[in-house]
């Protein structure tokens, strides 16, 4: 067998072009076979079908590039939950833009490793420009804001707690019951005290409870607020929280992994007013930024806030190299080898511009309100409340929690729809997290019809096909 060709260099594109044609055909064929938002049959059926289609993954003799790509990509696509389908709406699982996916291909072909300048000369310059630009969006009045590229909200939140610990020692975190699970996990990983969890009775942080916690606990204290919860999309009262933290000498981190990109929409940016008052902010552009995962950001108001992350490894950032002007990249992440995720983000922002990104955001939030209107107008469905961002909670009128859970699993097993679940107001709700800006009112009407037909099937003792 000849030595397989490489993706890079001047010959790389020539080798890639026919392979990409095979991949694109397999993506099409797999989606056509699936013919829905996810494969029908449930876990056992999907596993059996996938294993049968792919065959042995480590054969004695290779099958060749085109056969392997055609077989595995088709099988993976046929068995995928496709966030580009309007009825795949369970999670903060975005359908990536084609332009971002194309940029990600270039990143894979070039394979810069963002841990030393000599592995990523232009990529390191691009990342520095992108992170400075994104940080300036969050901190428009700070003289030298900065940001790091992360794998997502979980890593960004962990870094935020780490920075606070390095500034002040073992900080006590205070968060509301609506906070993302990564806050408690980060405290555990970093050896910090378990977070003080205060109520969020209305879905957002309770301000009197925060005031009491700030009085009761001695510093150093770090309050973590949320701009876009995973269950309901609620946004904490950021300005009021910033007022309280400042008055009591505490620091503030805002997890805006979901809601942060609202900054780019003139129509909706008021929802996240107050972000600029935080000591650190998490942003996640593989949510309301339509990027392939991963595309997380941690922003800080002062470049120097990141200095504590500096790490020395002589083979990557020798002191004399740094003194000679080679950029030191190790302090830009806790990871060593990492992909140039800045490329796809930068390509997307340049391709769409502020108005293009705002249009995607506005369309998506409008679809959420259209779904809420449909649910309100459907006699057998109950709406939890009007959506804050693009998460809509609803349930069949009069159904118990077991019925709600069964309906969700029925739709999953049949391959009809991917809806999430959320427990709030002491009840279980179906959760539609809309992130597809191409979703139409007819798509939404069909989704509500699928739910009502599933309810009818359960009540009649059968499962609709």
TrEMBL record:
Q: Supply the alphabetized keyword list.
A: Decarboxylase, Lyase, Pyridoxal phosphate
- According to its UniProt record, which cofactors does this protein need? pyridoxal 5'-phosphate
> Where in this protein does the record put region Disordered?
31-64
According to its UniProt record, the EC number is: 4.1.1.86
Please verify whether the record's keywords include Lyase. yes
Instruction: Check the record and name the Gene3D superfamilies matching this protein.
Output: 3.90.1150.170, Aspartate Aminotransferase, domain 1, Type I PLP-dependent aspartate aminotransferase-like (Major domain)
User: What is a single molecular function from GO for this protein?
Assistant: diaminobutyrate decarboxylase activity
One of the Pfam families matching this protein, by short name? Pyridoxal_deC
What family does the Swiss-Prot or TrEMBL record give for this protein? Belongs to the group II decarboxylase family.
- PANTHER family from the UniProt entry: CYSTEINE SULFINIC ACID DECARBOXYLASE, GLUTAMATE DECARBOXYLASE-RELATED
Protein name as catalogued: L-2,4-diaminobutyrate decarboxylase
